[in-house]
Amino acid sequence: DGGITQSPKYLFRKEGQNVTLSCEQNLNHDAMYWYRQDPGQGLRLIYYSQIVNDFQKGDIAEGYSVSREKKESFPLTVTSAQKNPTAFYLCASSINQGYTEAFFGQGTRLTVV
Amino acid sequence: DQQVKQNSPSLSVQEGRISILNCDYTNSMFDYFLWYKKYPAEGPTFLISISSIKDKNEDGRFTVFLNKSAKHLSLHIVPSQPGDSAVYFCAARYSNTGKLIFGQGTTLQVKP
Fold it and tell me: pLDDT at residue B1 above 90?
């Protein structure tokens, strides 16, 4: 089955700790994205990558970091510098940045206590 | 500054009637507009899209209308079904970077 897998579905961390969210796709897509969803604010773009070993900041990149060492993987690290990390995080991919449709994973609910 | 806006947080319609979800945008650099449907604790799924050079696109019960002069698009669902109850996100794509910008979402409830 082709798709995007985010793990884990729920994640709890103590304040001040870094945490890495996993995103893997087997769709052979070049472009991958990380979004954050907060109540009443829609989906906001954190980082995106158009190709392996390349990525760009989105609209709310502060306090986050990413890597794209492999085409199928785009992990997101939420650092202690992120002031409000508790949110629902969504990973997506598309064939390339010029393609209109993005496919989303199931999301990871991160709660920082 | 919200470049894609869905001003109605929620909408309730009766089964069998039409659902109309609205979206406004401010940036003329968008070249594609998309609608996504999302259930709680799941990722959004693509529903329908429209190019900025068209004014209508239809797929089964779903039709998207684009009014470029008003910078407004709408999603019509006819007839509405209880299974359509979800959050609907409007999204717009930048022509130069391919970035997708999402609206805040509208929660649709279809009552049996």
Answer: no
